[in-house]
Specification:
Distance between the termini: 24 Å
Radius of gyration: 21 Å
Largest sheet: 7 strands, mixed
Mean pLDDT: 90
Bound molecules: phenylalanine
Number of helices: 12
Order of helices and strands: HEHEHEHEEHEHEHEHEHEHHHEEEE
Strand order of the largest sheet: 7-6-8-9-10-13-14
Number of strands: 14
CATH superfamily of the largest domain: Response regulator
Structural class: alpha/beta
CATH architecture of the largest domain: 3-Layer(aba) Sandwich
């Protein structure tokens, strides 16, 4: 899939023209029947005049930057695809719902886009717990779901209609455990986990297994509840164990406060985390308290191939100079993976689309070239970044 370059007015004209053509062609599409076919060829099996894709993302609430970035990436991909003529000649209509960063909302909104809008596939969520809430619903309805950024292995275990475009936490945990033992030469670490998050618990577990296997010692394992404001009691206990580093696999809102309070308590060792740290809010809230710490993630704007450079350029153009983060890149890639699947399936029939997605091979995306494995996950490189001068400095890229 080659994304077209958005060139101001030209692009606008192209979109208007296509919109006019579509209005002319649309002789009443019935929502909800676009996945019922399976017989027709490419020209009929996409159901209506447009391809409806559902998206669920945390556009508001505690993890709002996750949803906003991921949505912007997805939207950019949709706009580029549409400007270049759509998929199998049909325009993509993205129907986005807000999960508000809250438990319970994912199930509600995913049921809604399937039943009310008749979407042919669902993209989302970023947070693993929210993807795990929606996955059984997509599976039951035989609607393929692609998570852009959820890394907990359990997400795709919901069934054969559930995919992801990113790596998983056994890999990410290994990457950070090796970084702690080999690069930082940390002999003993503490682990501080969000007890409410499947992502955090899983990443802590995989990190611990690898770190112990590397010969390291764990000084203490403590937890908090996402949304807490005071972490001082646990951080005091952690400080008592004199660790060389602390692994904090949480999300940015909590992590920023943890870094601030660790600094106040004189816990002056490197703090390490995973992709959940990635947000412009981390440095905005954490300021100098987050300086020098490290985390692993999926993408850095300075690293990558041709498609990655083009993405950076087009994203900046589309979103007022904003630099894309990993969420945006994964969001973009999730739509590209879906478009590639629809093309190879010759339509949007759920079962055919599922089979095509499962057969995704050597697909060139912004965050790397992917082949979907047997567990319906993508094997991809991770990057390690260090927080420097309020920004993220690229340290290394690690292959699976
Ligand atoms: N991997 C995290 C999860 O599964 C989500 C995330 C991905 C957050 C990328 C930030 C960046 O919950």
């Amino acid at each position: 899939m080659k994304p077209a370059r958005l060139t101001g007015m030209n692009n606008l004209w192209a979109v208007c023209l296509l919109a006019l053509l579509l209005v002319g062609c649309d002789k009443g599409t019935t929502p909800g029947n676009s996945n019922s076919g399976g017989s027709g060829g490419p020209s009929t099996s996409t159901g209506g005049a447009e391809i409806k894709v559902g998206e669920f993302a945390s556009l508001t609430g505690k993890e709002a930057t996750f949803g906003i970035s991921s949505h912007e990436g997805t939207l950019l991909a949709v706009e580029e695809i549409n400007a270049a003529g759509g998929i199998l000649g049909k325009q993509v209509k993205l129907i986005t719902e807000d999960t508000q960063s809250k438990p319970g909302e994912s199930a509600t909104v995913v049921n809604k886009v399937i039943a009310r809008d008749g979407v042919i596939a669902v993209l989302g969520e970023v947070a693993s717990s929210r993807s795990m809430e929606a996955a059984p619903i997509c599976q039951k309805n035989k609607i393929p779901m692609i998570s852009p950024s959820s890394t907990n292995p359990k997400v795709t275990e919901s069934g054969d209609y559930i995919f992801r475009v990113c790596f998983i936490d056994p890999f990410q945990g290994t990457v950070m455990a090796n970084f702690a033992s080999q690069t930082l030469k940390a002999k003993k670490v503490a682990i501080f986990t969000d007890a409410k998050s499947d992502y955090s618990k899983g990443l802590a577990k995989f990190f611990k297994e690898k770190y112990l296997a590397n010969g390291g010692t764990i000084t203490s394992e403590l937890d908090y509840n996402g949304g807490d404001k005071d972490f001082k009691a646990q951080l005091t206990t952690i400080r008592g164990g004199s660790p060389d580093a602390v692994f904090v696999p949480g999300y940015y809102t909590d992590v920023a406060l943890i870094c601030i309070q660790a600094k106040q308590l004189g816990l002056n060792v490197p703090l390490l985390g995973g992709d959940g740290w990635e947000s412009e809010k981390l440095t905005e809230i954490g300021k100098d308290a987050v300086e020098g710490h490290y985390f692993s993630t999926h993408y850095h704007p300075e690293v990558g191939s041709e498609i990655s450079k083009k993405f950076l350029e087009n994203y900046k153009k589309r979103f007022n100079g904003k630099i894309p983060d990993a969420l945006a890149a994964n969001g973009y890639d999730s739509m590209l993976m879906l478009a590639d699947g629809i093309k190879r399936a010759g339509g949007t029939d759920g079962t055919k689309l599922r089979d095509a997605l499962a057969a995704t091979k050597d697909l060139v995306l912004v965050t790397g070239t992917i082949t979907i494995n047997k567990q319906r996950d993508a094997d991809k490189s991770a990057v390690i970044l260090q927080i420097k001068n309020g920004g993220y400095k690229f340290l290394e890229s690690i292959k699976p």
